[in-house]
Every structure is written in structure tokens, then in C-alpha cells.
Amino acid sequence: MDVFCGIDWAEGHHDVAIIDHTGKQLAKCRINDDLDGYEVLLDLLAEHGDTAEAPIPIAIETSRGLLVATLRTGTRQIFAVNPMAASRYRDRHGVSRKKSDPGDALVLANIIRTDMHMHRPLPTDSDLAQAIAVLARAHQDAVWNRQQIASQLRSVLREYYPAALHAWREKAGTLTRPDARKILGAAPTPTLAALLPTWKLRLMMTNAGRKRGITEDAEWLHTLFRQPAARQLPSVEEAMGIQAKALLTQLNAACKAVDELAKAVERTFRTHPDAPIMLSFPGVGAQVGARILAEIGDDRTRFATAGGLKAYAGAAPITRASGKRKYVGRRFVKNNRLNHAGYLWAFATLTHSKGANAHYRRRREAGDWHAQALRHLFNRMLGQLHHCLQNRIAFDESIAFPTACAGQAV
Question: Going by DSSP bridges, is the β-strand pair 318-322/325-329 parallel, antiparallel, or unpaired?
Fold first, then answer.
């Protein structure tokens, strides 16, 4: 490769630098973030030897957006360089700590000129895998947003309406439950809740989709809402009720978004060729499987070994050694989305796989904390997932955990 390109990405414009194999700058320009700007960039690349058979490699500080989507057509290698890594490279060219957008584009071009073998190009994932990634990340963000709003609502209710927190404290989903949101919408203050008759509580639960335990819970709530309790001043209580109802409106919208995205994720994920293999693993459902697939993709050349996948997910430990000092601990630089999905997966396997549960118990007996033991289990399951995807085979408990299965047979 004789020509390299670096692009400093920004919201409204992008700076481009093209250099040759000696580091000499051949061209530079600034393009707008629109179709005309993309065409200018492609024409500039073509002027310096870019062809469909031998495309010029490009380094950029992002892996998403219309610009990246335009450049990823064909066999072009796109290197998404972490901005922190680019900042370290900038210091190689000068100690004055000066910075400019054209200068950053030049630094990015030099990164792949000198150290291309140290960086990994964007994977060649299929269109379906990229679509699943969009939906799975949107669903994950919606779940986090729902939890944040629910926490805000809980904080407000604690100040004037503790009975509402006690009512659904032991129920799955707590304030995000449909029946909880239905009743809080009708009675956002303790005064209004005390006026609700039992029949109306039953009706709201039924309308919210409850099927069992309606009569018992309605009678219990009827009693709870009428118990003597500390109250705010009437005007303050009414104002806080308005605040809670505003948060409840946001929570209803967030819950609806989560439900709609969950259906879209499951529908799209099950059409992917890797879905049957991933669903064969204990603890992996459509949502967790889609989140894992979204982060690892379906380009089987992306991770040459299981160790690379484990490091990417933050499941493998990292070693820091200098002289007589040595430290082995968890990774802080990782794919946080995949790591989060991994903990959900590992925790779910405890009740779906006797071998995984035995592995977790051994780690706990060895002195690991709960999170450490789950990380060890996630590390092991990732290695098995890498093997199954590479060889196109389903998960087999007797092969994955032979000791546990042998003991079970005895």
C-alpha cells in the first residue's frame, strides 16, 4: 500500500489528509457532512489511485454514521481508531501539545501508515447483523432509560407517598409493572389512593393485563392505602403528585418503547443464521442473544482466537507487571455493552445448566466474589460460543462441562 487516508470526523464537517508511504502529504481538504461532501471525498481518493480492486485504507475516529457507511462499500479497509489512542500518537509528532482538525487527520493517516498491523479494520458484518446491532443497542438503551426514569419516580414517591413504594416492592418490575403504572396514574397522591374502592382496583389490574391474584392484591392495596401515615401539606402533596404524574408519563412512554423494540429485536434476531446456535446455549434468549450478536457480529475472521473475543468482552483478566511487581485483575477498557450482556447471560446459566452452576460454586469456594465468579463463568462460556460459531455446531452440555456431567451420571 502506497497511499493512506485519515479523516478527522466532526458533526458538521470532516478534515481529510492523504499521504504516501514516506509520510509526505499528498492532499488535504475539508468536506461537508452531506452527499456533496462524500462525492468530493471519493473523487479525491480516486485522483490518488483509489480503485475498486485496490481501495485506499482509511483511518477515522468513529465506526458509525453515513460517512462510514458510504466508505464501507466494497472491500475498503476502514480503521476506527480510538480517540484516546489517536491522542497518544499525536504526541509522537510534537511535544508542544498543539492540536488542529487538519493535524488530527494527518495523525490518523500516519497511524495506519506505520502501525496498520496493530489496528483492526471494521468487520465485514452482513446487513442483517448490522440491523440487529441497531435494534439491540436501541433496546438496551431503552431499558437503561426506563430504569433511570423509574428511579427518579421512586425518589419522588419516597418523599410523600411511601405506601406506593411498599405496594409493589416485592413484585417483579416494581414501579415499571403495568398494574402499578395504571393505579399510580389514577391515584398519584395518598389522598386519592385512599378513595379508591376495591372493585376499581380490581378493574385497573384487569385492564393492565393481570391474570392471577387480582382479588387478594386489590384487597391488600385497599387496606394499605387507608392505613395512617405521615403526610405532606395538602398543597405540597398535590404539587408532588403532579410531578410524579409527569414522570409517570415518561415512564409509560419508556415502557412502551422497550416492549416495541423487544418485539422487533426478537423478530429480526431469529432470522439470522447464527441464532439457532446462540439459542442452544443455556441462559441465552432472544434479547441476550441479539445483544451478543450485535457486539461480536457475524464476521468469523474478526476474532482469530477465543482469547481475542474474551479480551474484547472484558471477561479475560489483564496483567500489569514491572520488575518484582505483578498485578492480575479485571479489564476496564472493554466493550461495555457486551460485558453487560455477559453478566446477564452468566447469571441466567446458573439455573439452566448444572455444569455452569458447578463452575460458579467452585469459583465461590475458591474465594471469588459473586461478580468475579460470574466473570469467570462468562469467560468460559465465551470460549465455548467462539468454538461453536466457528465450527457451526450447537452447544453440548456433556462436552462443555464433562466433569459435572460425569458426576451427574454417577
Answer: antiparallel
Total of domains in the chain: 3
pTM of the model: 0.86
Q: How many residues does the chain have?
A: 410
pLDDT in tens, 198-244: 999 999 999 999 999 999 999 999 999 999 988 999 999 999 999 99
> Which one-letter DSSP state was computed for residue 123?
P
* Set of cell numbers at residue 122: 471494521
Instruction: Name beta bridge partners: 299.
Output: none
Please check whether residues 317 and 393 belong to one and the same domain: yes
Q: What residue numbers bound the domain in which 156 lies?
A: 131-267
Work out whether strand 25-32 and strand 13-20 pair parallel, antiparallel, or are unpaired. Answer: antiparallel
CA-CA distances (angstroms) from residue 111 to 22, 57, 99, 118, 252? 13, 11, 16, 9, 48
Triad 173, 175, 179: Cα angle to 5°: 85
Residue with cell 423487544: 262
* Residue range 168-202, pLDDT digits in tens: 998 999 999 999 999 999 999 999 999 999 999 99
How many whole angstroms separate alpha carbon 55 and alpha carbon 76? 5
CB of 74 within 8 A of CB of 55?
A: yes
In terms of C-beta density within 10 A (0-12 exposed, 13-18 middle, 19 or more buried), how is residue 133 classed? buried
